[in-house]
Amino acid sequence: MVNKNINDIPPILCCSNIIKRYQYSNFSITVLDGITMSIEYNKIIAIIGASGSGKSTLLHIMGGLDKPTSGDVFLEGRALNKLSDKDCSIMRNTSIGFIYQFHHLLPDFSVLENIAMPLLIKGLKFAIAKHKAQFILELIGLNNLCDRYPCELSGGESQRVAVARAIINNPPLVLADEPTGNLDESNSNNVFKLLEKINLWYGTTFVIATHDLSLAKKCHKIYIVSNGMLKISTI
Ligand SMILES: Nc1ncnc2c1ncn2[C@@H]1O[C@H](COP(=O)(O)OP(=O)(O)OP(=O)(O)O)[C@@H](O)[C@H]1O
Question: Which residues contact 182 (CB under 8 A, 6 or more apart)?
Answer without folding.
Answer: 101, 102, 155
